[in-house]
Amino acid sequence: MADRIRAHVFISGRVQGVYYRATTRGTARETGVDGWVKNLDDGRVEAVFEGDDDAVEAMVEWCHTGSSNARVDDVSVEYGDPVDLEGFEIRR
């Protein structure tokens, strides 16, 4: 089994009200990545991805585009040790 990594991501731009969270959840599940995604009060979206290196990197790259109606201005990523999340959910 590949080593798991964790990426904590903050996405800014027009990323709320454009199905960004729902599309992130669907893409993460298809990619086999665990974690969560939520809207922040300042208009950004926050997400955590855990999984094998290639899958997590694919999700980080996906965040630069996001859902079809999104306009992503910036993606910042912090890497850390996984905490063994299971499944992928939208947090409120």
Give an overview in words.
The protein is α+β, with helices and mostly antiparallel strands. 25% of the residues lie in helices and 41% in strands. Helix 1 runs antiparallel to helix 2. The protein is globular, with a radius of gyration of 12 Å.
Topology:
Blueprint: E1 4-14, H1 20-31, E2 34-39, E3 45-52, H2 53-63, E4 71-80, E5 88-90
Parallel strand pairs: 2-5
Antiparallel strand pairs: 1-3, 1-4, 2-3
Helix pairs in contact: 1-2
Keywords:
single chain, 92 residues, alpha+beta, Alpha-Beta Plaits, 2 helices
Q: Can you summarize this structure?
A:
The protein has two helices and five strands. By secondary structure, it is of the alpha+beta class. It has a domain of 56 residues: Alpha-Beta Plaits (2-Layer Sandwich).
Tell me the helix content.
25-40%
Uncertain regions spanning at least 5 consecutive residues: none
What is the straight-line distance between the termini? 32 Å
Strand content: 35-45%
Strand arrangement within the widest β-sheet reads 4-1-3-2-5
Number of helices: 2
> Remind me, CATH topology of the domain at 18-73?
Alpha-Beta Plaits
Query: Largest sheet, if any?
Result: 5 strands, mixed
List the secondary-structure elements in sequence, H or E: EHEEHEE
Number of strands: 5
Question: What average pLDDT do the residues reach?
Answer: 96
Structural class designation: alpha+beta
